[in-house]
Each structure stands twice: as structure tokens, then as C-alpha cells.
Amino acid sequence: MANPSLLILAGDGIGPEVMAEVKKIIGWLGDKRGLVFDVSEDLVGGAAYDAHGVPLTDETMAKAQAVDAVLLGAVGGPKYDTLDFAVKPERGLLRLRKEMDLYANLRPAQCFDALADFSSLKRDVVAGLDIMIVRELTSGVYFGEPRGIFTEGNERVGINTQRYTESQIARVARSAFELAKRRGNKVTSVEKANVMESGILWREVVQKIRDEDYPEIALNHMYADNCAMQLVRTPKQFDVILTDNLFGDILSDCAAMLTGSLGMLPSASLGAPMANGRPKAMYEPVHGSAPDIAGQGKANPIATILSFAMALRYSFDQGDEATRIEAAIEKVLADGIRTADLMGPDGGVPVTTSGMGDHIVAALDASL
Ligand code: IPM
Ligand code: MG
User: Fold this and answer.
1) Is the CB of 284 under 6 A from ligand 1?
2) Which of 35, 109, 201, 364 could anchor a disulfide with 255, C-beta 3.0 to 4.6 Å?
3) How do residues 116-149 score in pLDDT, each as one tens digit?
4) CATH of the domain at 164
5) Residue ranges of the binding site for substrate
């Protein structure tokens, strides 16, 4: 059988640096575990714009559609802020999500014990935290029509449209329930049914699917503003949070910060199963391109390495190897190894981006 295929789109800013560390892990799996990937690489975001005048070429889009999984670094940077909206780096990312139809975005927010003191909240509030946000990723206000800036009388009006069909809600709800079955059997569905019709429909559809097909799952509904408050107040009340595209964008940043560092959080964006049974999939860190620290060896590669671990779990049926990588990271953190973003009151051993990758590889070696 052919090796599983992976397309790496490192992107901008710290993207290429953190991706270099993932490549070490991929190399390690090939050498030590006989798990070989066919890896190809291409450009996305500002890097693609610089080379081709667009943030994602049709050729790259076609490659992304053909591989078993895409691994993305980050896109964007101040250099591109003044570009036309249609060619901004972010449009490359949004095109990948939309055309691959990656409707379920899984964003875990997990607090590593060694980092519990890094949170802006108290240790007891966050220690042991393990939340999974399931964000709808290809519909809602990010894509709804009409959209644009129009002229009305003697002034302009900016319009975006929140739009959800029953089937768009249903498929992401099923993703969340399936995931909940493998976790704590608990889902909190989040919308603003008090002010938005799309929220009323969301609530109805999610409840109906739960009642018909997932009676074992405890489902509660929460307004998005309350959810933001509850996340900061008692985050451990949550297990799986299911929500729409825009609320998911906001709440996942909030949940991320509970864990102490944005440099630690991975994500998976999953679509419908392909002919080989694997879901269409793209994996990326939650953090951005961090242009202010790019090229200085300061970036934390852990979020991207954990994103690759998610790929092993959700695309390649290699959950044991994913767990091995997660344990190696836990070990390195417990040993006090720290990139710049993780240097805190407890001191620790400062390392560069590449140093962190080397320590993780050493911990993987030690795990054999
Ligand atoms: C995210 C980001 C993106 C989003 C941007 C870069 C378009 O904030 O993945 O959360 O808003 O979805
Ligand atoms: Mg975001």
C-alpha cells in the first residue's frame, strides 16, 4: 500500500520555523517506527502571494484536495496588511477550509500540569482542564451572502450575513456528539437563540439529533455571552463545546488563554470521509504567524507538533503514536524545558525553537 500522504504548507512568519520541528518528528517516526509519510511542500498566505500574486494557487488547492492530510503553519504579517481583501494571506486559509469543506474544527484546550501557573487564572481553576471546542468552520457569517460594502443613499453600509441551513448544523452537531462519546458524554451547544433566528434553528436541530441518535449524551444549551463568562469563571464545567463559526473563533481564543500559552494549542479541521475512509483534513496550530518574533528561534513549536499528533490520531489511525508524542511533550515540559513564551516564575531551561524540537525527539527516543 502507498505511504500516507501529507502536504505541508508552512506559510508565513514563524510557520516555517515551527514546521521544521514537525519535520524532525516525521523523520523520527520513519526511522524509528517504520511509519513513513510521502511529504510534499508548498506555499500559502503571504509566501504564496510573494511568489504568485495570490495567497493560494489553483495547483496548491488541487494538491490539498488530493493528499490524505494537510499540515498548515500560519499565515499573515504586517507586510500584507494593505493588500486588497481578495488576496490577503487569510483568504488562502479560508479557501482551503471552504473548498475542502472542512466543516468541523476541533480545538482542544488542555492545561499541561507543568504550565498551570502560566494561566492568568488561579491554578485550581485550570489545572487538569481538558475542553474540546467543536467550531463550525465553513458557513455562518464568515461566508453568508449577501456580504460587502454597499452604498445606501449618501453613506456606505457594511453587510455580512449569518446563515445556517439545517444540514450545516446537523453535520457538525454529529461530529461533536461522536467526539463526546469518546470523551465525557457531555456537550454544551452555544448560540444566541435569544436574539438570532439562526440560533433558534441551531438549538432545535442540535436537540433533535441528540434526542434521536445520542440519548446517552448530556446536552445543555448556553448563550454565547454567558459561555464566555463561564469559561473564565469555572472552565472545568465544560467537556465538548459545540458552536458556530464566529462564536467558535472568539471562544476558542478565550479557552486557549486559560491554558497559559497560545503556543501550546493544536487544531484539526475535518470534513466528510474520502474514498479511502479518511476524513478530508487539515491540521494547524491555533496561534498565528507572530511576525514580531519570526526568524529569532523564539517560537514554540509545540502547538504545531501537537497538530501533527492530531493528524496521526484522526487521519492515520495512529492514536498510540499520537499519545507517545503527547507524552514526550509532557515529559519535556515537566523537565523544565522552556521556549521564550513559557519562561515564567519557575525559571526553567531556556531553549530555542529547534532546541525544543530536539528535546522532544530525545524524549521520544527514551520512550522506546
Ligand atoms: C482562526 C483565525 C482565522 C479565523 C483567521 C486567520 C481568518 O482567527 O483560525 O481562528 O478567523 O477563522
Ligand atoms: Mg481565531
Assistant:
1) no
2) 109
3) 888 889 999 999 999 999 999 999 999 999 999 9
4) 3.40.718.10
5) 97, 107, 135, 225
Element (H, E) at 92: helix 89-99
* Cβ-contact 53, 25 below 8 angstroms: no
End-of-domain residue from the set 258, 276, 309: 258
Q: Do residues 32 and 73 both lie within one domain?
A: yes
Per-position DSSP letters for 253-301, written without gaps between them: HHHHHHTS-GGG-EEEEEEEE-TTSPEEEEEEESS---GGGTTTT----
Per-residue pLDDT tens over the stretch 143-152 = 999 999 999 9
| Numbered residues of the known binding site for Mg(2+) | 225, 249, 253
Angle between helix 302-314 and 15-33 (nearest 10): 50
Which of 141-155, 198-212, 265-279, 350-364 has the weakest average pLDDT?
265-279
Which of 42, 249, 283, 341 is labelled catalytic? 249
**163 and 79 in one domain?**
no
pTM over 0.90: yes
- Annotated catalytic residue 192: yes
Q: Give burial (CB, 10 Å; 0-12/13-18/19+) of 130.
A: middle
For residues 73 and 284, is the Cβ–Cβ distance under 8 A? yes
Q: Are 254 and 291 in the same domain?
A: no
Task: Write the single-letter amino acid at 197.
Answer: E
Report the pLDDT value the prediction gives residue 346, as an integer from 0 to 100: 67
- With respect to residue 361, please indicate whether it lies within any of the assigned structural domains: yes
- Residues 280, 249 within the same domain: no
Q: Ligand 1 atom 2: the closest Cα is on which residue?
A: 249
Ligand 1, atom 8: closest residue by C-alpha: 249
Q: Which atom of ligand 1 is nearest to the CA of 76?
A: 6
**For 6-30, what is each residue's pLDDT tens digit?**
999 999 999 999 999 999 999 999 9
Domain span including residue 208: 130-258
